[in-house]
Structures are given as structure tokens and as C-alpha cells.
Amino acid sequence: MLDFGILNRGVAKCLSLFAKLLPIFISVIENPSFKKCKFTKPLAGIYELELSAVRHRPEGLEQLEAQTRFSRKELQILYRGFKNECPSGVVNEETFKDIYSQFFPQGDASTYAHFLFNAFDTDHNGSVSFEDFVMGLSILLRGTVQEKLNWAFNLYDINKDGYITKEEMLDIMKAIYDMMGKCTYPVLKEETPRQHVEVFFQKMDKNKDGVVTIDEFIDCCQNDENIMRSMHLFENVL
Amino acid sequence: MAAGVATWLPFARAAAVGWLPLAKKTMPKPPVDNSSRSDEILYVNVSGVRFQTWKNTLDRYPETLLGSSEKEFFYNEDTQEYFFDRDPEMFRHILNFYRTGKLHYPRNECIQAFDEELAFYGIVPEIIGDCCMEEYRDRKKENQERLAEDTEANEASDAPLPPHSTSRERLWRAFENPHTSTMALVFYYVTGFFIAVSVIANVVETVPCRPPKGSVKDLPCGEKYQLAFFCMDTACVLIFTFEYLMRLFAAPSRCKFMRSVMSVIDVVAIMPYYIGLVMPENEDVSGAFVTLRVFRVFRIFKFSRHSQGLRILGYTLKSCASELGFLLFSLTMAIIIFATVMFYAEKGTKGSTFTSIPASFWYTIVTMTTLGYGDMVPNTIAGKIFGSICSLSGVLVIALPVPVIVSNFSRIYHQNQRADKMRAQQKVRLARIRMAKKGTTNAFLQYKEDRDRDSDSTALCVKNRSAFEHQHHHLLHCLEKTTNHEFTDEMTYSELCMTESVGFRTSRSTSLSSQQGAQNNSTGCCPRRARRRAAMRLANSTVSVSRGSVQELDMLHVKTTSIPPQTRSSLNAQADDLKLNCGEQDFTAAIISIPTPPANTPDESLPPSPAPIPGILRNTRATAYTHDTVKISSL
């Protein structure tokens, strides 16, 4: 015969134990990493996959030829390489960062890559298509000094308001120094980027208003011998 | 990924313009790039299938054949393409690797063929993409295991006995492979018979026999015919002991043998008898003695030497140790859980057989294995519910690891079958190879006969042989001349061996040949015979020398004794003259001496002038060094 007394006591004990364990159980489930686990949401991933299959086709070869300073053959080579790496036709920021980081294994190139990405993504739609890519390259490799300086200014002007502030410059500088990594000679100090920014602003900011405008920038660079000479360095890259 | 980096480098360099206004120092000069930037299409012809690809595609992996200058070796100027005489199907995959950066393993291709192609094109197999890596590794491991097994099988049993094996080694071989000699086979069957007899005796011992007169109780046969059973037992144990000691003596590594499973079984099988002999007939100890007799049943395991199936079973169990362990563990868990539950469910019942949890273990096991003896039965409702859950789960828990064990057994069994088949095939293959070799030797001997017989009729022979055969025969001929020995067939060889003893006394050259034989007996099983054979031919050929040649021989004799034989070059000159003088090949064979032992000095072996021809030859030989003789012989 069933002994209800024992059963009652047993059940009560079980319930109390369960009550103690329940919060732990809940906390485990609520853990975001557990939620991300495929085990919890098997089907959602499949639908997400379908949406991300974006395809982008560039404008015709003739149009690109007209807009850029590359020859037909060069455009063909460029596009073949681009399409091989990005079969979908566009580069998103993550891929861009990965690619750029491969060239700077010692440091962290992600911040600078982010700024570069924004500089290339002229229509600011979050992805760099082949046209953006090729236009950017055209300016950098085949453009006039004016155009190149313009592009550089655009790169430094993070919020694209036409002025480079000290903060923006500092961000850029830090990003560049990040690419160097830890092991440098002489050892990188905390205030090195800041000092570099100071030097830059002393040179560029003529009216000492704390910002550098495009005209100040271009004027100053054109008067600098070194900068002028180095502008022609990368013309034979392609 | 190498491809990615190469493609994006121009972009990264272009983006460096952004650093220029900020630069503290002047930038370095860029590297000069003289290579043509224009891309060209390369044509690759693989066994007639034309592939076309950009040069840049192939240049992505410069450490492979196609990416480096190694492919220039395969360039065909006439057709302006690279020609590879390889499998076009495989090449497709190789080229895809260059295009996509990922190497895929085609599942329907042989793993070795694929590996060979990769090795040819200089691609490391480690870069196979993740999608195909597992399949590749599995296949490769399977293949290697199979090859290892086959070589093992080859080396193991049917290798012929090494010639100088001791009796101990022979004994061991007889024990391990009974089918090698009839004695071993007889012994094998005898031990098998005695094992059976011993086991049957143990079993029959306990059967109740008719009681002897004057008693009512049934007596087990063991006690009725005590003497008979004791004699039989003694005989069996004697045989087993003898066998064990023989094996111990013959074993190449006694420690290893004593640790092996079979040896332990042997010991356990015979120990009880000896312990029984030694122990006194004491009432206290007889209980232990009876227990010991249980161990006699281990003799049945000795059959595993005789039965391959038993061995396979043993291997299977060993290989499935983890699955068996899991089965045991899960069963134990389930038993404990259900026993506990049943005990508490049946606790209050009057007259319940579930007296304790360990007592409930028995019920749980019987129920889970669906035996259901019925000696312990739950009476309460809760007990019945849990009992039914117990029996349902029992089936599941036992059924889970069983397929794994079964598949393992099947795999091992098939492997064994395959090993036997391979052995049979190997025999056929070896026979075929032997026949082919004999064919080649016969062809060469035929060629030599024709050549010896009539130099004019060689034209006829020439027609019947291909260029390959010509060159092969020439090569064998060169070898003959090098070693101054000739190839013969088996009949002639056995004849020679027999006429050996006759030729021993007649030929004077035997003395020198025996010298050489003593010095140089490392050339196979018949070194002295080989030397004597050469000496025989020497004697034979000197007999066949024509009158004219004898004159020349005399001339030779004069020449060598007049000129001091110090310098090798002078001897070489002699050799050249010799070559010009002698047309007959047999003669040259006679002149060419057997490789001399280095200890011989010229003065010692200078015979007096009216020496028979072998003596002259000895003279020349003694003064000539081995190198010179080789020079003479390599016509």
C-alpha cells in the first residue's frame, strides 16, 4: 500500500530542491551565448541566409571607362580580381576589414579600415561596390595631385562636414598608429599620436581656429616639397 | 588566403596615399616592377583536353608546379601550350583549386591516384577544404590500414624459412603456423583432441551414474570411476604441460610470451591439477580444491588457437571495449535507479520479496533483460507501473550499443576474409611473376646461344626482338662481362654443381679458386661453386682456343714477363693490344681473370716458364688489378 506520508514528504523535498535550482536554470537559458546557440533557433538561420544573397552588377564597361582613367584591359583585370574575391559584387565592411588586416599582421588595422571604408563608400550605403572601388582607385592612382589631396582630406574628415577637427585627426592618427602594433622601435608611447596631431595642426592650421579646411589643407600640402614629391609614388601600382 | 592578398595589394598600396600628408619622414622609393601587367591566357593541354586559364590564376600559388617556372619544362613550342600527360579528370580539380582557392576531393576517385596527382603538381594535401577533408582523411586511413595489413600478412606466415634458422626458431614457426610442416600439423590436431577430451571429461564427471551395489543414492560418474577420470586428467595435463614448456623454450622472447593471453590461459588450465597434487587431502582445504577445479574449464579457451572465429570474437570484444563499457555503465545506472524505486514502492507490502535494494537488483536485471523469472513480483500499483517502465526501458538500453558491436564484428570478420583472399591472390601473383622472370631469362639465354653459335645468323635473331629486348639483353651481357660470370638456366646449374666434385681434381685452377672462395664467400649460397664454375668455364674455354690464339697467348706471356708489371697504365696498354688481337669472345673470357684477392703479390704467383695455360693466366691475373680486368671486359 502506498504510504502517503512518505510520498508527501518526498514530494515536498523534491519541490523545494526544484525551487532552488530553478533560478540557476533560468540564468543559464537567458545567457545570450546560449540563446545564440543554433540549438535554440534552428530554423531562423535558414531564412536569414536567403535574404543576404545580394547581387550587384556594375555599370557597363564603357561607362566605367569614361568615368575612370583606367584602360579597358585594366578594368577587366581589376574586375576579375574583385569578382573572384567577392562573388556577390559588393564588399561589406567586415570583409573590408579582414582584407585590409591581412596586410598588417602585427597591428590592429580595423579602425583605419573603417575610415577607409567610409572614404571609398561614397554613396554611404554600407557596402563598396565595384564602381566605388574603381573610382577610388582611379583617383588614387591616376588622379591629379589636387584630386588626391581632396581624397585624403575626405578620408580625414570623418563626419564629412568639410572641417578636420583635432578630435577627428586624433582618431585617424590613433588608427594609423594602431596598425603599427606593439613591437616598434622606438617604443610607442601614449602621447605620440597626440604630439603628431599637434605637429600636423601647427603646419596646416593657418588661421589657428582649431580646424583645418580643405583650402588650408591643399595650400599647405602644395607648398610642402616632400608631400608633393611623394604624391607620385604609387602611380605604377597597377 | 594567398589569392586574396595578391588581388588586394594594389588597392592597399593605393590607399596609402592617405598617409602621405601626415608623414613625418619622406617615403621610400617604390619597387620597380618590370613584369608586364597585362594578363594573358595560358593553354594547358592535359592528355588532349585543353584547359585555358589566366596566367594570374596560376601565379597565385607560386610554390606549386603550375605556379612556378617548373611548368616551362612541359612547354611545347610547336603548339604553344603546356602539355601534361596526366589524367584530365583529376586536372579539373587541380585547376579548380587555383581558381577558387579551395581544393576538393572527388569522392569517386581512388585515394592513391589523387595523392599521386597532388604530388605531381606540387600541392600539399593539407589544404583540402573543410568540406572534403574528413572524407579524405577517412579514406586515407582506411587505405593505409589495408596496406599495412597486407604487408603484415605477407611477412607473417608464408615466408620461407631463412636458411640458417636454429632448431628453436623452427620449433617456434611450427607452433605458430602448423600448416608449414606435417609434424606441426599432427601436433596441432593431437593437442586439439586432448583439449576436447579434457573438457568432455570435466563435463561427464558430474553426470549422475548408476550407484554401485549396496547404495541407494545416485553417484556422479566422477566418483564412481575415479581412477579412470584421474588417469585421463593426468594424461591431458601432461600433454598440456609438455606443449607449454615447448612453447616457452621456442619463444623468441620469453617474457613477452609469458605475458601473452594464450600463455596465461595455458597456465590457468594446468595449475589446478598440480595444486591438487601438492595439497594434502585435508577437509578444510578440499573446499578450496573443489573451487580450483572450476578453473579446469578454462581449457576450453585453448581452442582459440585452433579456431579463427573465436579469435575474431576476442578481437571484436577488445575493440568494442568502450561501447561495452558504456553499456555496462548505463545498465548499472538504470539498475540502481529502478531497484531503488521498486524497493520504496513495494516497501509497505506484507510478505514482499523486495527485502532490500540489493535484493531488488535481481528483479531489475531480470526484468530489464526481459527474462522475467517470476520469483520476485511487484504487488502494489505503483510497483507495477514502475516495473513496466523498467522492462520497457531495458529493451532500449540494451539495444543501443549492440549495433556498434555488431558492426565492429562484421568489419573485423570481413577484414579477415579479405586477408585470406589476399594471401591466395598473392600466391597466384607470385607464380605469375616467377613465370615472367623465367621467360625473360630464357629469352636472354636463347639470345646468347644464337650469338655463340653463329655470328652471321644474328640478323635473324635481331628481327624477332624488340628494341627494348635488345637493350635489355645488352645490359645483361654487360653485367656478365663485369662479373665474369654467366647466366645459366637451372638445369645447367645443377649439372655444374654435380660435376663440381669431378672438376675439383682435374683443374689446377681450383687451388686459386679455392683461395678466392675462402676470401669471398659472401656472394650468396654457392660462392665457391660459382668461382669453380667460372674456373671450369675458364678451363673449357682455354681448351677451345685455336692454334692462332695460343700463339698470341705465348706472345702475351712474353709481353707480360718482359715488362715489369708495376704500372697499371702499362697493363692497360697490354689490355688494349689484347683487345685488338683477340676476336673470339670466348678467348677474352678466358683472359679476363677472376677478381683477385688483394693480398696476392706478383712475385708469389709467378710460375716457371713452361707453365700450362692456367698458370699463365694466373700470372696475368695476379699482376692485374680488379679494375683493369673490368676495363678489359667492358668491351
UniProtKB/TrEMBL annotation, chain A:
It holds the Pfam family EF-hand_7. GO terms for cellular component: peroxisome; voltage-gated potassium channel complex. It is a peripheral membrane protein. Gene3D superfamilies: EF-hand. GO terms for molecular function: calcium ion binding; potassium channel activity; potassium channel regulator activity. The keyword Ion transport applies. Keywords: Calcium, Cell membrane, Cytoplasm, Ion channel, Ion transport, Membrane, Metal-binding, Peroxisome, Phosphoprotein, Potassium, Potassium channel, Potassium transport, Repeat, Transport, Voltage-gated channel. Belongs to the recoverin family. This is Kv channel-interacting protein 4. It comes from Amphiprion percula (Orange clownfish).
TrEMBL record, chain B:
GO terms for cellular component: dendritic spine; neuronal cell body; postsynaptic membrane; voltage-gated potassium channel complex. InterPro entries: BTB/POZ_dom, Ion_trans_dom, K_chnl_volt-dep_Kv, K_chnl_volt-dep_Kv4, K_chnl_volt-dep_Kv4.1, K_chnl_volt-dep_Kv4_C, Shal-type_N, SKP1/BTB/POZ_sf. It is found in: Membrane. Residues 40-139 form the BTB domain. GO terms for biological process: action potential; protein homooligomerization. It is a multi-pass membrane protein. SUPFAM superfamilies: POZ domain, Voltage-gated potassium channels. The chain crosses the membrane at residues 183-204, 224-245, 324-345, 351-373, 385-406. Component of heteromultimeric potassium channels. Identified in potassium channel complexes containing KCND1, KCND2, KCND3, KCNIP1, KCNIP2, KCNIP3, KCNIP4, DPP6 and DPP10. This is A-type voltage-gated potassium channel KCND1. It comes from Amphiprion percula (Orange clownfish).
